[in-house]
Design goal:
391 residues; Jelly Rolls; 7 helices; membrane; B30.2/SPRY_sf; ConA-like_dom_sf; transmembrane helix
Length: 391
C-alpha cells in the first residue's frame, strides 16, 4: 500500500510540473505571436499604439480578405516589394520622443530655425517625378503614368523636444490637382524612417498613417490597394471615414506630445482624433499615385487656417517659446516687436524726429556756406540773372 501511495504522489507531482511548463510555453508563444517581429531591447511597447502594429498573421488575413490573387501584377509587386523593404530595412522603433535629433541636428536647427526643415528631393534627379521648391513646395510633374507612385518625406521629424507648447502642428494646401484620371489620388500623412518612398504612399507600410484624397484613412495597412479604392461607389474596399479632398483644400496634422495623440483638421476645422499612445518620431510626407499635383506645406512660417493653432502657437517654432532659446534648444530665434527693446538707448534715440541738421554745409569743392542747399541755388540763380548783358 505504501508503494502505491508513493507512486500516486509522484504521478500527481509530475502532472503538475508538466502542466506548469506547458502553460508557460503556450503563454509565451501567445505573447510572441503578435509582436515577435518588432520586439527588441530598446523597444518599449508603450511607445506605440497597439492599433499601429502589424504582424505577419494579420497581413496574411488582409491579403486573403482583399483577394491578393486577383490583383494586377503591378499591385502584387508593390505589395511584395513593400514587405521585402520592411524586412530588410526595419523602421527605427528605438527612435522615440525626439531621439532622432542628433546634437548636430539640434545645432543646425538652432542656427537656421524653421528654414532647416525641407522636403527631400527624389534620388533619381534625371528622371525625377517631383521637384521640391523653396523647401516646402512639392511639385509632382512626371508622375501621371499608370501605377507610378512617389512620396516626398521631410528631412527631420516633428520637433517634439524642448517645447513649451504640448502640441506641434502643420498644414498642407492642395495647390493644384486636376481630377482627370479616375484611378489617381494623393496621400498626406506621417511616416517613420526608413520608408519606401520611391514606390509607396504614406499609410501603406510600417509605420505610417495618411489621409488619402479618396477619403480613406490609412493606418499602416497595405490593403485596400490604390486601385481597389477606385472600383466605384459600390466597392467593398472603400472605407471613407473622412471627406474626400480636392484642389484648394487644406489638411492639417497635429500631434499632442504628452499623450501621443494624432489628430486631423480640414479647411480650418478639426475632423477627428486618430489614435493615442504613439511616441515614435514621425516625419511629414506627401505622395501621389498616377497623377501630378502641387502642394504647399506650412510649418508655421505663415498663419494657419485652423485658428487655434495660431492662438496657442502650435507651429514648429515660436519666437515667444523660452525653452527653445537655451543651448540645447532646437532653435534660437530673434525677438521682434517691443519685447526686450524698451531699454534700448539706440532705439529710443530714434524717437527724436525729425533730426536736427546744421545750417552750415560744405559744397562739392569744400567751401563753407551758410544756409541750405536750396537757398544757395536760389541765390545763385538770382545772381546769374543780374549778370546777364542788356541789349
Amino acid at each position: 500500500m505504501l508503494f502505491l501511495f508513493i507512486i500516486v504522489i509522484i504521478s500527481v507531482l509530475a502532472t503538475t510540473i508538466i502542466a506548469c511548463v506547458a502553460y508557460r510555453l503556450f503563454s509565451d508563444d501567445g505573447d510572441r505571436n503578435g509582436y515577435s517581429r518588432i520586439e527588441g531591447d530598446t523597444f518599449h511597447p508603450a511607445d506605440v499604439d497597439r492599433e499601429f502594429l502589424n504582424d505577419e498573421e494579420s497581413l496574411l488575413h488582409l491579403a486573403e480578405e482583399y483577394d491578393f490573387t486577383t490583383l494586377s501584377p503591378e499591385e502584387q509587386q508593390a505589395f511584395l516589394k513593400g514587405q521585402e523593404f520592411t524586412k530588410n530595412h526595419p523602421p527605427r522603433i528605438d527612435r522615440t520622443r525626439g531621439k532622432s535629433f542628433s546634437r548636430e541636428d539640434e545645432l543646425i536647427i538652432k542656427d537656421c530655425g524653421i528654414n532647416a526643415f525641407e522636403f527631400e528631393q527624389e534620388r533619381d534627379i534625371l528622371n525625377a517625378r517631383y521637384v521640391v521648391e523653396d523647401r516646402t513646395e512639392i511639385n509632382f510633374t512626371n508622375n501621371d503614368s499608370a501605377y507610378s507612385t512617389a512620396t516626398s518625406v521631410l528631412n527631420y521629424p516633428l520637433p517634439t523636444k524642448n517645447r513649451t507648447q504640448d502640441t506641434v502642428y502643420f498644414e498642407v494646401k492642395i495647390f493644384e490637382f486636376v481630377e482627370e484620371n479616375q484611378n489617381a489620388h494623393f496621400s498626406i500623412g506621417l511616416v517613420t524612417k526608413p520608408y519606401p518612398a520611391e514606390f509607396r504612399l504614406p499609410g501603406y507600410n510600417t509605420f505610417s498613417i495618411a489621409y488619402e484624397s479618396t477619403g480613406n484613412l490609412k493606418i499602416n495597412k497595405p490593403f485596400p490597394t490604390p486601385l481597389q479604392q477606385h472600383l466605384g461607389a459600390n466597392s467593398l474596399f472603400n472605407a471613407q471615414v473622412l471627406p474626400p479632398l480636392h484642389q484648394s483644400d487644406i489638411v492639417g496634422f497635429g500631434y499632442v506630445i504628452s499623450t501621443g495623440t494624432l489628430f486631423i483638421t480640414r479647411n480650418g476645422k478639426k475632423v477627428m482624433d486618430i489614435m493615442k499612445g504613439c511616441f515614435l518620431d514621425l516625419y511629414p510626407a506627401v505622395g501621389c499615385f498616377s497623377t501630378n499635383a502641387k502642394f504647399h506645406v506650412n510649418f508655421g512660417q505663415m498663419g494657419f487656417v485652423w485658428i487655434e493653432a495660431n492662438v496657442r502657437r502650435y507651429g514648429f517654432f515660436s519666437t515667444s517659446d523660452r525653452k527653445i532659446g537655451g543651448e540645447r534648444g532646437l532653435a534660437s530665434l530673434p525677438q521682434y516687436g517691443n519685447y526686450g527693446m524698451k531699454s534700448d538707448k539706440l532705439l529710443d534715440k530714434g524717437d527724436e524726429l525729425p533730426p536736427q541738421y546744421p545750417e552750415e554745409e560744405l559744397d562739392f569743392f569744400g567751401k563753407l556756406r551758410v544756409g541750405t542747399s536750396a537757398q544757395l541755388l536760389s541765390n545763385k540763380s538770382k545772381e546769374d540773372l543780374q549778370e546777364e548783358p542788356k541789349d
